[in-house]
Amino acid sequence: MNRFDITVVIPTFNAEKTVGRCLESVLCQRGVTVEVIVVDGGSSDNTLSIVRRLVSANAVIISEPDQGIYDAINKGVSLAKGALIGVLGADDVYRSDILSIVKAKASGGKEIIAGLTTIDGQQRLDEPYRAAALLSGIPFGHNAMFASREAYEAVGLYDLGYRICADAEWVHRAIRMKIPCLKVEQVFVEFGTEGTSSTNPEEIMSEAYSVIQRSFPFLSQVEAKTVLHSVRRWQRIELVNDIFRKYRNISPLFARAALEAFPHLQDDGPEGFHSRFIAPFRRILSRLSPGG
After folding, report:
1. CA 195, CA 154: separation in Å to the nearest integer?
2. Residue 175 near residue 133 (C-beta atoms within 8 A)
3. How many Cβ atoms are within 10 Å of 280's Cβ, its own excluded?
4. N-terminal to C-terminal alpha carbon distance within the chain
5. What whole-number distance in Å separates Cα of residue 22 and Cα of residue 190?
6. How many alpha carbons fall within 13 Å on the CB side of residue 164?
7. How would you label 185-219 residue by residue, b for 16+ Cβ within 10 Å and e otherwise?
8. pLDDT tens profile 46-99
9. Which of 2-6, 177-181, 224-228 has the lowest mean pLDDT?
10. If we measure between CA atoms, which residue out of 153, 107, 129 comes closest to residue 260?
C-alpha cells in the first residue's frame, strides 16, 4: 500500500540560491499527500540548512557523495513510497496545485503522466511519446514527468553511463516497453537553467547520439547524428533517405520510427515510385477515357 499519492525526488548540490523556492513550490501543493526526498551530494554551502528549515520531520534527507545527479535520483526513486514518482531539479519549480492534477489523471497502473515545461518563460517544444521519439531526445521535460512505481519497477533505474541524458534513455526504454503515457497539455514545471544539462551542449549532443544508438545499435554515430539533426531540422531531411533504405528491413521498430518522424519516406522505394508516377498517370488516363 502506497503511503503517499506522490513522491518528489529533489537531487541537490550546492543549491542554496534556488532550493528554497524549489521546495516551497512542492510544499504549497494542495489536495495531495506528498513525500519529499532530498538527495544531496555533500553540499558545502547552506543547501542542507535551508532544506531542514523548510521540510517537515517526515521528509527524507540524504547527504553523501554520489556519482552524479542520476545516482542521486536513483537513490531517491529506490526509497520512494508514493504511488507516483516525480523528479524536480533544485532550480526548478512546480506550478500551483499541479500535483493534484497529476493525481486526478492517474489510473493507478503502470503508467507515465507528463505535462509541459517552460524555460525562461518560453514553452518547451515537446513531441509525441511514440517510436519517432527514439530518433530524437526526450519527448517532454523530465521534471514534468511522473511515473508510477510499477513503471519504474518495469523500466528500471537510470543508467549511470549517461551523465546528462540518462532521463532520455529511460524514456526511450519506456517507449520500447510500451509503457503508456498520458500527455497533459498544461504547464507543470518552470525549468531552471543553472543545472548541468543546461551548460554542457557538446556533451549533451554526444550523449544524445549514444541514446539513439542504444535503441538502434546498428547505427553508426555519424548516422545517429544525421538522424537527430534531421529530426530537429538542423539539416536537410533528405539526408536520412539512404539510412532509411539501409535499415528499414532490418528493424521494424526503426522503420516505424523513421516513418513517423519523416512522412516523406512514405514515398520511398517501389511504393513511392508507384505513388509518384504510376498512380498520377492512371488518373490522367481515366479522365481521358470515355465516361471517365
Report:
1. 28
2. yes
3. 11
4. 69
5. 10
6. 17
7. eebbbbbbeebebeeeeeebbebbbbbbebbbeeb
8. 999 999 999 987 799 999 999 999 999 999 999 999 999 999 999 999 999 999
9. 2-6
10. 129
* Beta carbons within 8 Å of 288's beta carbon, 6+ residues apart: none
CB 148 within 8 A of CB 111: yes
Check residue 58 and give its pLDDT: 73
- Spell out where the chain has E strands: 4-12, 34-40, 60-63, 82-87, 93-94, 112-119, 122-123, 145-148, 181-191
Distance of alpha carbon 72 from alpha carbon 196, whole angstroms:
14
Nearest to 111 by CA among 142, 153, 144: 153
Cα torsion 159, 160, 165, 166: sign: positive
Residue 60: CB atoms within 10 Å? 17
Residues 29 and 94 sit within 8 Å (Cβ to Cβ): yes
Phi, psi dihedral angles at 183 (to 5 degrees): -95, 125
| Span 183-203, average pLDDT | 79
Model confidence band, residue 114 (pLDDT cutoffs 50, 70, 90): very high
Given a contact cutoff of 8 angstroms between Cβ atoms, the answer to whether 91 and 192 are in contact is yes
Residues 162-189: pLDDT tens digits? Answer: 999 999 999 999 999 999 999 999 999 9
Pairwise CA distance, residues 165 & 216, whole Å: 16
Question: In this model, does residue 199 exceed pLDDT 70?
Answer: no
* Residue carrying C-alpha cell 508507384: 274
Q: What are the φ/ψ torsions at residue 147 (nearest 5 degrees)? A: -115, 145
